[in-house]
Amino acid sequence: MGKQVAKLKVMSARSMHDPVTALAYDFTSATGHEVELAFGTVGALQKKLDGGETADVLIIGMPNMEALEQAGALVLGTRRKLVTARIGVAVREGAASPDVSTPAAFKDALMEARRIAFSDAAIGGSAGVYLARMFNELGLADVITQKGLPQQSGVEVARRVANGEADIGMTLMPEIVPVTGARILGPLPKPLGLDTTYCIAVMATCAAPDAGRAFIAALAREEARVIWTEAGLDVAM
Predict the structure, then answer these.
(1) Helical segments of the chain, H only
(2) 227 and 157 in a common domain
(3) Residue 44: exposure state from Cβ atoms within 10 A (0-12, 13-18, ≥19)
(4) How far is residue 20's CA from residue 18's CA, in Å, rounded to a whole number?
(5) Which whole-number Å values give the CA distances from 94 to 90, 91, 162, in the listed order?
(6) Domain end residue (candidates: 147, 165, 187)
(7) In total, how many domains does the chain have?
(8) Which of 106, 114, 127 is nearest to 185 (CA)?
(9) Residue 192 counted as domain residue
(10) pLDDT per residue as tens digits for the range 195-224
(11) Structure pTM?
């Protein structure tokens, strides 16, 4: 008899689209197990889970994962930290670099910008929700109302910067990296910023938990580190 081949459904936060897709392809090539990928914001994924949808392997923010573990929705012992994403500040390639090294300088840069692109909090992504709160705390609500270009995804934020529609953009760094023409100045200046740590685990409904564990091992292996870091993510393993 040949080796049993599984088909895994993987739900993942969309900020990891490129590295997860690449590593899933490698996993299928190496093991023969098929992988069906479904990406969404953490908020959208949680809504699907709350509505009864399940997956074999889940990659989601740590607080959501911890709640799922407490609810008995995961295979015990499979949850592990995977990567951490930070919100970055982007400008167009070749454009002058505004000073964003301190909160005061960053605020000045936003006030001087013609248009500002950022992830829309209404979509439910962690970056958008944080940025909406940060703008209010910095006293920039009116500035953002006048100059803001809220976007449906981080990739769209980077595109608005790359094509010159926005002078400055903010979203998770791994969503900026793939967009040609957008350059990351760095993360938001401390103490501003939101480090989002994502965890991976096998869900209790998985029919092939051994294959699920193998998928986690493939994403967490040392050789995968370069794929994560090149995508703008900090390896959390």
Answers:
(1) 17-31, 42-50, 62-70, 103-112, 126-137, 141-147, 154-162, 173-176, 209-220, 225-230
(2) no
(3) middle
(4) 6
(5) 12, 8, 10
(6) 187
(7) 2
(8) 106
(9) no
(10) 889 999 999 999 999 999 999 999 999 999
(11) 0.84
